[in-house]
Amino acid sequence: MTGWTAVLAGIGLTAATAAWAIRWSGSRHRPAGGPGGSVIRPTRARLALAAAVLAGTGLLVYAGFQGTLSYYRTPAELDADPDALLSRTRLGGSVVPGSVRHEGGKTVFRLASEGQEITVRQQGVPPEAFRAGQDAVVEGVLGTDGVFHADQVLVRHGNDYRPAETAPSGTAG
Questions:
Q1: Quick check: 62 pLDDT over 90?
Q2: Average pLDDT over residues 110-122
Q3: Of 57, 74, 89, 126, whose CB has the highest number of CB atoms within 10 Å?
Q4: Residue 158 burial by CB count (10 A; 0-12/13-18/19+): exposed, middle or buried?
Q5: CA 65 to chain centre
Q6: Arithmetic mean of pLDDT, 5-20
Q7: CA dihedral 127, 129, 135, 138 (to 10 degrees)
Q8: Strand partners, 94
Q9: How far is CA 17 from CA 13, 36, 134, in A?
């Protein structure tokens, strides 16, 4: 028996178990290219595997966020971009008071932000919380007529929650 196998045998390990432990421990004293013919140290292989798993996970997270992250633009940004015409985008601003009107199944209103306004035409009825002075984000396309044609209206609201006031109930007798 060689020195290291005698020590390992003394603590109850067989030569095969000892060889496996040395192969996977990353020991520099093991012979290169063992039974599998691999010259790569297990620690480097584990690092490469961990790096590949992390890169793959990062790529999946990045790809997952691509479809969910969608920022909105202001009327000024939309007006300044010549490529915005007929391309799908989100537009955010405050609903101009007195601008909301309903025209045969469509809701027409103006959004304002940073001193610029744009007319928005939406097919259908906007959400219940939609009202003049409320912040809103609309999704759609800017038409050649200068009107933003929205197919979705989202109402932005603050983080403060205030429960609805309840009317005092009568006493039962």
A1: no
A2: 91
A3: 126
A4: exposed
A5: 3
A6: 57
A7: 0
A8: 112, 135
A9: 6, 16, 71
Task: Assess whether pLDDT exceeds 90 at residue 97.
Answer: yes
The DSSP secondary structure of the chain, one letter per residue, reads --HHHHHHHHTT--HHHHHHHHHHHT-TTSPSS-TT---S-HHHHHHHHHHHHHHHHHHHHHHHHHTT----B-HHHHHH-GGGBTSEEEEEEEEPTT--EEETTEEEEEEEETTEEEEEEEESPPPTT--TT-EEEEEEEE-TTS-EEEEEEEE---S---PPP-PPPPPP-
Q: Report d(CA 157, CA 134) in Å as an integer.
A: 8
- The amino acid that residue 106 corresponds to is K
- Cα separation, 109 vs 132, in Å, equals 9
Greatest Cα-to-Cα distance within the chain, rounded to the nearest angstrom: 98
Task: Retrieve residue 115's tokens.
Answer: 């001193």
pLDDT above 70 (res 89)? yes
Q: What is the C-alpha separation between 87 and 78, in angstroms, rounded?
A: 11
Q: How far apart are CA 63 and CA 59, in angstroms?
A: 6
- Rounded Cα distance between 12 and 69, Å, is 58
The number of residues making up the chain comes to 173
Structure tokens at 84: 């915005």
Q: Is the pLDDT of residue 74 over 80?
A: yes
